[in-house]
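Recap for those who missed Tuesday's class. We walked through two folding examples back to back. For each one, the amino acid string is listed first and its predicted structure tokens come directly after. Nothing is annotated here on purpose, so try labeling regions yourself before you check the end of the notes.
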Amino acid sequence: MENASAEVNRQFEKIRETRRRRAIGWAGLLGFILFVLIQGMSATELLGGDVRIAYFVGSLREFFPITFVFGFIPFLDVGQYLAFIRREELLYNPEIGGLLFNWPPQLYTFFFQELGIFSIFGEAGITLAMGVVGTILGFPIALMFGVLGSERVTPFPFNFIFRGTMSFIRAIPAIVWTLIFIPFAGLGPTSATLAIAFDTIGNLGRLFVDELEEIEEGSIEAMQTTGANQPQIVFFGMLSQVKTSFIAWTLYILEINVRIAVTVGVVGAGGLGLVVESQRGLLNFTNMMATLFCIFILIISVELFSQRLRSRLRSDEEVRSWRELIFGFPNRMANSMLK
């Protein structure tokens, strides 16, 4: 009995010692994070820098114009936002839209002469077009680099040629690629689109490589036993396993590319980003906020579209209609909070 009691005490002491070491380790990690945080805040001038909180709070009145209903009830004056959005054609171009919505609709002119699928959305259409075209142009090269960069297809160190190229592309932000392409295509949507395409090659190609590295060996070995050559193994044994993931990652990169299109627009590439920068330069913060709302609408729309396509690719998930997705959101949010 005494030996058993001593053994139990030793086990308890061992558990307490383990907990003490774990607590010391967590305390050391938190202390290190705090140390790095303070050092970083000093480097970014957050400590003692020119941070004017009161001035920022006061300037919010210019971003959010307030009108008083009945002289005393404050209300956000969205009319100023809508007037600027309509005047600058941020979300809708009536000249192009008239071709489609007038009776009879001039479909041939809209689709083939004016090429109005993106133009109908005004400045938002330019931003959306840069993201979509950049993704489409970058996809085939990203697929090629992703396949050839996998060690399952190209032996080391030759696969590192493609991995290194993608790493080099990722190391340079899209906004810098835009500046690089200015001598080639001038400052505008063309340079931004090429920059987004290059950025897609680096980011999407890397995701493709990671997916190919995780595939199952069974189907590949089965094809090898049947005498299949290397291209057949790649297309039917490897890509067939990851096609759903590849489509999902491509849609995810499309979402990112539309955001990048807004960012590169700030340096003069066009679209909603250019409108934000021009209104900031004119100190028209109300118009700037109206443009930001348009950016929000554009990004949310792209994410909803991407989410619907991805959900249809997943056979284990219930497919919802667009109407149910939008109008059923409050219900789903309430249910998730009650879980």
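Example two. Treat it independently of the first, because the proteins are unrelated.
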Amino acid sequence: MLTPITAEEGFLLDLRYATADNLTGAPIYRRPVALLLPLAHQRLLRARDQAARFGLRIKVFDAFRPIEAQWALWHAVTDKRFVSDPRAGGVHPRGAAVDLTLCEAGTGAELPMGTGFDAVAAESAHGHPGVPVADQRNRALLLGIMVAAGWAPYSLEWWHYELPEARDFPPLSAGAVRDGPM
């Protein structure tokens, strides 16, 4: 049901929730794997191809997030605008969202975006006036690539994109997904 995102497809993977380098300070996932619904995977491949036209690659931080992991983030983040209520399902647990950034194709260096991934801060929002203009351009480039590929942004997080029809799919638990991150 879910399709893996792989380095062999040209993506860079930095699956933060499989490491302690995330906003909880501890690994949430046991396995570093990124999964998406087939429709979302197709659209991510489209975004990859768009990015390549600019000499860029996509780095993925997170994709499918089992509902159990959503609860871990819910408890770790005080500003609930930055994490969906697990009782409502969210979009990551549906396999219909991806957290990502753009990198230089040759070096793999991330383009500056004004804040880091998962920064629970006002400056993480698209168009925030406190973000340097050059970083805003990078965010706008990412936004254009993702929207052209059929994704919708979340206004408070420059890194988060989801299928516009995400809520048409059911949320999934770790037990429902064989070879998932948990």
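Answers for example two:
The longest helix spans residues 38-53.
The mean pLDDT is 93.
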